[in-house]
Design goal:
alpha/beta, Adenine-n6-DNA-methyltransferase TaqI, Chain A, domain 2, 2 domains, 19 strands, binds S-adenosylmethionine
Length: 482
Amino acid sequence: MLPSEMRSKGGVYYTPPALVGRLLDAAEAAGIDWATAHVLDPACGGGAFLGPVASRMIEHLRGCNRRVIVRNIATRLRGLEIDPFAAWMSQTFLAATLHSALDGAGGSIGEAITVCDSLTHRSCETFDLVIGNPPYGRITLTKEEREPFRRSLFGHANLYGVFLDLAVHKAKADGGVIAYVTPTSFLSGEYFKNLRGLLAAEANPVSLDLVSERTGIFDGVLQETMLAVFRRGEQVRSPAVSFVEATEAKLSRKRGGDIALPEDPQAPWVLPRSPRAVGLARRMSAMPDRLADWGYKVSTGPLVWNRYKEQLRTRASRSTVPIIWAEAVSADGEFLLRSDRRNHLPFLHLEASDEWLRVKRGCVLLQRTTAKEQARRLVAAELPQGVVDEHGSVTVENHLNMLIPLVERPKVDTQTLAAFMNSAVADEAFRCISGSVAVSAYEIESLALPPHEDMRQLSIVLRNHPTRIEIDRTCAEIYGTP
Ligand SMILES: C[S@@+](CC[C@H](N)C(=O)[O-])C[C@H]1O[C@@H](n2cnc3c(N)ncnc32)[C@H](O)[C@@H]1O
């Protein structure tokens, strides 16, 4: 019933009971003893976690005097919340949970909930379990606000990343557990590389449950969601992955086995997004080649067209270059020099200071974003050297990534690379490091690839005008997933 503007501004999305139940089970599996654990939810909203946590505490204290139970829980359960009304709900539901579980006996739960901004709230209390569904969204922090979280930040701060760092501060160093509902973007994004480094050093993942997109239980949330449990004080290099489908009240879970964290703690974590991709993800973790080993680097197209509106032209002249717009890369991976979307003109007039916009080298073009409903995340096409030479040079719009040869003769030629990037298995591999519709240069450069020598097999197949299925089959064999 909250206004949608308030929900998106404060990152207010309350967690359904089925997911809460699973996260509590996962925390228990990571070592939490409800009879003794001190528990904090630093973004407790209406108490979606605190009520069920109190219920489990009561179950584990059966047989004790009811007053003692309430007093005991009052000392072990804490919630922080910025919204006073939500905090009141938490406090009230918590009291109601205790009241009904203890048949009305027991007394007051005290002030378990504090109304505050968790990111500036100062307290040196630490907990056995930090649990919750922290808010997310970009935030701007002042220098002072940034300071305690500097170790995990790189560029833009995202609220949930800062709440993860806060949880590391708040969980006990010897075995404290963190159990969060989070977006998955921290697994791969460059902005989160210091956070990954912090987690690898201080709080290793124990279990990661991917919540199926079909679930649709966080109304209006577009990001891929995960139930993540971390433990402090002990090295866990192979967290268990599961796939979860849930409604408000029910949840089913399929185990996907263990995965390996990368050797470089800041590198993207390879995580299968479906049971089908488990084997591929395991193989990827052992593949040392990256795009640079094949002889390429990734840059985004240099032209941000709306900064050059005045220089767009309908006709070619001596001072113009053709513009490669995103639509030049068709959904099935063909390159066609065209400009048929609104406001797109075919040529750009270059001033003397615009020389850096020229692209003189043939490369592989890769779309930077795809629509969520689109079947593939990777959509590539070869920009042949012949097309560039025909015009002397071209420019490329920034909705495209360019996979640019680093040397005259890269180990994999551009035609083969484009065919490979368009294959079903490359798409699946990319999804193991990114749940987002955006395809960043950083992630493409981090993608684990088969040895470049194996790509010769694909080059040979391409000589005989293969069908898409034949290309897919060859690429799957090369990736080791026939
Ligand atoms: C995603 S909701 C989850 C609420 C609750 N944990 C649940 O799962 O139902 C995030 C909550 O964090 C609160 N919040 C946002 N920024 C906060 C901050 N800086 N400090 C404390 N709470 C904050 C919001 O008001 C909201 O209630």
